[in-house]
Amino acid sequence: MFFGTTVEGTVVRAVDGDTARIRADGREVSIRNLALDTEESNSGSRTKPQTPWGRAAKAEAQRLLPNDVAVTLEFPGTEPLAECWEKHRDNFGRVLGFVHAAGLDFQEHMIRAGYSPYFVKYGYAEFPDHHARYTAAEQEAQAAHRGVWDQLAVNGAEARNYALLGVWWHLRAQAIAAYREARIGDPLLFNSRLDYERLLMLASHDTGAIVFTELREYHRVGGRHVVVTIGSLQQPFQLFVPDADSDAGQAILRLFDNRYIADEPDHPRRSYAYVHGTLKLFDGKPEIVVRAPEQISDEPPS
C-alpha cells in the first residue's frame, strides 16, 4: 500500500545499495532511497569508508533492480507530482523517495537483510506504516546479527560504529518528529529544506519568520563575520552572525559548539534548532541574521 504520491518508472541502473537512476514522467533522475544508508562500494571517506559489505549491498541492489525493470517511486509527501519532483531533494539535488519493485518494498528488504540500518538521520519515515515496518526489519536483522550488525563477519573489522551512529541519528530524528508535530498546529513554522522556495520569496521582502533547520558547520568570512550552513547545495539556507568577536557573538558560537553542531560521528549534538529573525537575501540565498543566542532554541518560540 502506498501513502505518498507515486509515479511509475523503469530502472536505468543501480548505482549503489541506496542510489539508483530511473526513468519516469519523461525524465531520468538519480533516486536516493529514503531509510537506507548502505556502506560505500565505489569511494569512501574517513567517516564512511568503502567496504566489502558496501560492494555486496550494491550487488544486491543490482539483483533486485536490474536495468529496465519496472518500479514505483513513492514520494515522502502527498503533494502533486510536479511539486514532489522539485520539493523532495537531498543536499546534492537527488530525488528522495521509496522504491518498490514487483510488490517488494526495496527499503524494507535491504534493512531486513542487514545491508543497511534503518537510516533516520534526516527523520523517521514520513508514514507510520513505513516507520513501523522498517523498525521491525531492523530489529530482526539485529537479533539475527545479520549484515552490518556483524561487522567482523562482513568486513573483517568494524568499519562503522552503528551503535554510536544510531544514538545520534535517533536524537536528530526525534527533533524532526517534534517539528512535524508542531507544524500541524502552526503552518508558519518553516523547514529550511522543504520550504526553501517559500523562504526565498519571504526573504525578498525582509519578512520575519521561524525556521526549523539543521546547523551543520560554520566558518568565518571577512574577519569578524560568521556564516552557518546547513550542509545543502540544493537548499543553501544560512545564518549570518555579524560580529562573532563580540560578547554576544562568542555566546552564539559557544551555543553552536556545545549544543547544536556535531563533530560527526564521535561527538553528537542536537543538530537541529528553531531560529527566529528576519529573512533576508544575500547573493540570492535566504538567511537570518543572528545577533543573540536567544534567537536559537530547541522548541519553537511561543
Binned strand content: 25-35%
Low-pLDDT runs of 5+ residues are: none
| Helix-strand category | alpha+beta
Globular, elongated, flat, extended or rod-shaped: what is the shape? globular
Q: How many β-strands, per DSSP?
A: 14
CATH fold-level name of the largest domain: OB fold (Dihydrolipoamide Acetyltransferase, E2P)
Domains (count):
2
Helix content: 25-40%
Architecture per CATH nomenclature, i.e. the level-2 architecture of the largest domain: Beta Barrel
For the termini, the CA-CA separation is 38 Å
- Rg is 20 Å
Notes on the structure:
By secondary structure, the protein is of the alpha+beta class. It has two domains: 155 residues, OB fold (Dihydrolipoamide Acetyltransferase, E2P) (Beta Barrel); 111 residues, OB fold (Dihydrolipoamide Acetyltransferase, E2P) (Beta Barrel). Helix content is 31%, strand content 26%. Strands 7, 8, 9, 10, 11, 12, 13 and 14 form an eight-stranded mixed beta sheet that branches. Helix 3 runs parallel beside helix 4. It starts with 5 loop residues before the first strand and ends in a 5-residue tail after the last strand.
Keywords:
302 residues; OB fold (Dihydrolipoamide Acetyltransferase, E2P); five-stranded mixed beta barrel; 14 strands; globular
